[in-house]
Specification:
Length: 234
């Protein structure tokens, strides 16, 4: 998979060289390119923003540098890339969207700052590629960079080969629509707290049943919105 990121803060993405994604990058399972939006400005101050039409607080990113950046990335004609605009006004980012995007061969993340990017940019890009506006959650970050990083990590780890043991991907929160059961390791007793008896026996059926019950209980308690409305088990 190839991932391009356009940002005015390329240095944010240094962490992509660390840990699993760093290794995936070195092993060429993920090809990541970070582009500085200011390379597409032509004034002395390398201006990327301006005041909003209609008034209001804050600044809006001007369309011209973005237009040039996308011309350079998408080339002529239609592109098979999916262009992601991180924004609190987008559709929620979920594990199922991560799975869907992990199937793509090319993603482009357009990281806005300030009060966002002039709306014509997404409209224009949509004539050449699939565009989605995606929110990390119902809160406001200072820009799209941290959101893009979170999405790239969630998507990247689903690309085959990135996580060494693929079985570990299916035993996680949100993969089966539930939160994950609690996990324990050695020692069996720590500061007076015991690992549940059932996990210490070798009865795999009983362990699976206990884990499912724990997952359901935790989901009911913490995230009842994830369960079907009729109260049936997921
Ligand atoms: N940019 C600012 N806030 C954001 C959010 N919650 N999700 C995605 N992008 C953002």
């Amino acid at each position: 998979m190839r991932v391009d990121i356009v940002t005015i803060f390329p240095e944010f993405f240094g962490v992509l060289d660390v840990s699993l994604l760093g290794r995936a990058r070195r092993e060429q399972l993920l090809e990541l390119h970070v582009h500085d939006l200011r390379e597409h400005t032509h004034d002395r101050h390398r201006t990327v923003d301006d005041t909003p039409y209609g008034g209001g607080a804050g600044m809006v990113m001007r369309p011209e540098p973005w237009g040039e950046a996308f011309d350079a990335l998408l080339g002529e004609g239609e592109s098979d890339a999916v262009v992601v605009f991180p924004t609190p006004a987008g559709v929620p980012f979920t594990q199922s969207l991560a799975r869907e995007l992990a199937e793509e061969s090319r993603l482009i993340f357009a990281c806005g700052r300030y009060e966002g990017i002039d709306a014509r940019v997404a409209e224009h890009v949509a004539t050449r590629a699939r565009v989605i506006e995606v929110s990390l959650g119902d809160y406001v970050l200072n820009g799209g960079e941290v959101a893009a990083m979170a999405m790239i990590e969630a998507i990247g780890r689903l690309v085959p080969g990135v996580v060494g043991n693929p079985a570990s991907l299916v035993e996680e929160s949100h993969e089966d629509g539930l939160l994950e059961h609690p996990s324990y390791t050695k020692p069996a007793v720590w500061r007076g707290l015991e690992v549940p008896e059932v996990l210490r026996g070798g009865n795999h059926g009983a362990i699976a049943a206990w884990r499912r019950e724990q997952a359901l209980e935790r989901t009911r308690r913490v995230r009842p919105d994830l369960l079907p409305a009729d109260g049936a088990d997921a």
